[in-house]
Amino acid sequence: MGIGIAIDGPSGSGKSTIAKAVAARLGFVHIDTGAMYRAVALCARKNGKNWHDETAVLSLLKDIDIDIVHTHYGQRILLFGDDVTDAVRTAEIGVGASVVAVYSGVRQKLIELQQQLAKSRNVVMDGRDIGTVVLMDAPVKIFLTADLEERAARRCNELSAMGLAHSYEDIVAQMEQRDYDDSNKSKALRCAPDAVVVDTSYMYIEEAVAAVLKIIEDKGVLNV
């Protein structure tokens, strides 16, 4: 049985970047679960399905093929064998991911895959319900948070780095909507009672990574 480190938090809190760095430092596998939900949203879009049509989205699950592979360039997301790592990172697909993640059929399928991935290897898994649902028995649970404006700025920088058009105002509005959806849906984003909260608003990436590694060390899971 592998060691699972759970990292949760809202969009733009630094989950994936920090989890990736922590996993690399520990020699663990990084599992970005949010990218898997984004892949479902992208699949629906490619097949002309309305994200708000639950029946239509669920009809894709029977044959959907989502895989996570690790290369020298880091984690890559494959949809039916095609590398969609960059395609799933747009703000639009992020909104779609928030919509389809509400559907129990989508969540159940991806949760089963995520739990399977954690059974045979040491993982740092990030998402929105890792500590509360996917890895409830994880020895280390961390909840990352940050101010809305800082999260929006980070997403803008991420999109700019990929050469994708965007506006700061649109990103803020989309994140506000996503925060509202995450707080009001039946499976709301929440911090596990035994999670350690880390506010990354005024932290550089290395500072946040160091803070997470210190928490892991203090938990006595392993010597970092």
Characterization of this structure:
This protein is 48% helix and 17% strand. The protein is α/β, with parallel strands linked by helices and 224 residues long. The strands form two sheets. A five-stranded parallel beta sheet has the order 2-6-1-7-8, sandwiched between helices. α2 crosses α4 (91-100), α2 (33-46) crosses α5 and α4 runs parallel beside α8. It is globular.
Q: Helix-strand pattern, N to C?
A: EHEHHEEEHHEHEHHEH
Low-confidence stretches: none
CATH architecture label: 3-Layer(aba) Sandwich
Give the CATH level 1 class.
Answer: Alpha Beta
How many domains is the backbone divided into? 1
Helix content: 40-55%
Averaged pLDDT, please? 89
The SS-based structural class is alpha/beta
Radius of gyration: 16 Å
SS elements, strand count: 8
Q: Please, how many helices?
A: 9
> What form results from the Cα inertia axes?
globular
Distance, first to last CA: 20 Å
Strand fraction equals 15-25%
CATH superfamily: P-loop containing nucleotide triphosphate hydrolases
In the sheet with the most strands, the strands line up as 2-6-1-7-8
Main beta sheet: 5 strands, parallel
CATH topology: Rossmann fold
